[in-house]
Design a protein that fits this description.
elongated
């Protein structure tokens, strides 16, 4: 086998190159698309977590504010001040207790509502058995209550979420000082509202696409859990160091109040790594956390990667199969191509022989007849015809030979083509030519132009 034949067999065809380039482009596009779409999807999931953290933190904050508003409304009742000014008056005691009972009936999830003297003795309570008992177990505790109330003055002091010393259950607790006409504190009112139903209801609401998510509430100052799905962890310290650092930054103001706290961390010995979003409740110094497994947050990314990988493999296989088929078809395609070229050449030759004069390359009589059938003329679109006859062509052929006569014919055709740039030259006989000029206007200028072209041709032919 010759070297030329071996080189021809080893040559990579253009189609094969196209297929190779297509594979490379598909791989690049697949990688880029997977990265871009996966990044956007994960970003949207993280943003959803931030949004949910903000919304649910707002619900909890509103719940605490509602508790404050409830206590404020209660503190305005006249029976409270009357009782504190007359703590031994049976009528004042009865009126105040009735007020507490009636008001308590309209407050949902209430643990307790009470009126206490400045010395800390309960004078009226929604739980009658608590009347007469001290609220503070020591002088130090009572002094702390006094300091908190004095700092708040005429506003509610909210203890936030805490474990109730009375019931052992989680509550929102708040106190408010009651003052006389001179602004002196003569007692205070307080309430505790259970938070379990609210927190459990929030925990039951699943995030779309994040069914395994959970949330927690952390005291930013102590890092203790105020709420956690695992009830045994409430009151214990959050063991995620990034959350502890975040709480410090939130209190110092060096961190945004909402965002992604950390990605890819273990959370309280869970079975998978997590993404954690947060919302800081500044007024109460709480950090609300939404915790979702990394596999949930990036599930769409993983699915896209799998899909694109499978798709890429299928495309590669299809391209390979197509390449094999194409290799088998190349020989047939080459033969068909050659046949088509031959047919086109034959067709072109036939058309030339049918409509053109082979000697002068001018259109022939058949072409003129077809043109006359197709031409459309009217008053505004005239068509001019000029006829030329070569005198003595037979004598030239006889005296100088047919080659000289052919030269005269070709030269005549060339002069007519040059003289009538807008016209078509037809050879209608051995020594006869017709020039057709179609005009788009019927004007003296158009006529004169044709007339000048006739004179130019005549002058050149003499």
């Amino acid at each position: 086998m010759s070297n030329q034949t071996q080189t021809k067999k080893r040559r990579i065809s253009p189609i094969t190159w196209i297929l190779i380039i297509l594979i490379v482009i598909l791989l690049v596009l697949s990688t880029f698309t997977t990265g871009a779409v996966g990044s956007i999807t994960a970003k949207n999931k993280r943003q959803d977590m931030i949004t949910v953290a903000s919304e649910r933190a707002k619900v909890i904050e509103d719940y605490a504010i509602w508790a404050e508003d409830t206590l404020t409304n209660f503190s305005h009742a006249g029976q409270i001040r009357t009782l504190l000014e007359n703590p031994n008056d049976p009528s004042a005691i009865a009126d105040a207790q009735k007020l507490v009972d009636d008001f308590s009936a309209d407050v949902g999830d209430l643990e307790g509502l009470y009126i206490a003297s400045w010395s800390g003795t309960v004078l009226a309570h929604s739980v009658p058995e608590a009347v007469g008992t001290p609220l503070a177990t020591s002088d130090e505790d009572l002094e702390n209550i006094h300091n908190q109330l004095e700092n708040a003055y005429d506003k509610v002091f909210n203890f936030g979420m805490m474990e109730s010393p009375a019931s052992g259950r989680q509550i929102v607790a708040a106190n408010k000082a009651i003052r006389n006409d001179y602004g002196e504190a003569i007692g205070f009112v307080g309430l505790g509202i259970f938070t379990e139903n609210l927190l459990n209801d929030l925990a039951d609401v699943q995030l779309s696409g994040l069914q395994n998510s959970q949330y927690a509430l952390v005291d930013a100052n102590t890092n203790a859990y105020l709420y956690h799905p695992d009830k045994s962890l409430i009151g214990t310290t959050c063991d995620v160091s990034d959350i502890q650092t975040l709480n410090q930054d939130l209190q110092s103001g060096s961190a945004e109040e909402s965002g992604i706290a950390v990605t890819g961390v273990w959370f309280n010995g869970g079975a998978s790594k997590n993404v954690i979003a947060y919302q800081y409740v500044k007024d109460y110094n709480w950090t609300f956390l939404v915790i979702a497994p990394t596999s949930d947050v990036y599930r769409m990314t993983y699915q896209l990667q799998t899909f694109v990988t499978i798709f890429g493999v299928l495309i590669v296989l299809l391209v390979i199969v197509f390449g094999i088929i194409n290799a088998h078809q190349e020989a047939i395609n080459r033969k068909l191509g050659n046949e088509i070229l031959k047919n086109e050449a034959t067709k072109e030759s036939l058309e030339t022989a049918m409509f053109n004069d082979i000697l002068t390359d001018a259109s022939n009589r058949t072409s003129l007849e077809m043109a006359l059938d197709k031409v459309r003329t009217d008053r505004d679109h005239p068509c001019y015809f000029a006829m030329f006859d070569i005198s003595g062509l037979s004598a030239i052929n006889a005296q100088f030979g047919n080659d000289a006569g052919d030269t005269v014919l070709c030269r005549t055709a060339d002069i007519l083509k040059e003289s009538f740039p807008e016209g078509t030259v037809y050879r209608t006989g051995d020594d006869e030519f017709v020039v057709a000029v179609q005009k788009n206007e019927n004007s003296t200028a158009a006529y004169n132009q044709v007339y000048r072209d006739v004179n130019t041709a005549h002058g050149a032919l003499i």
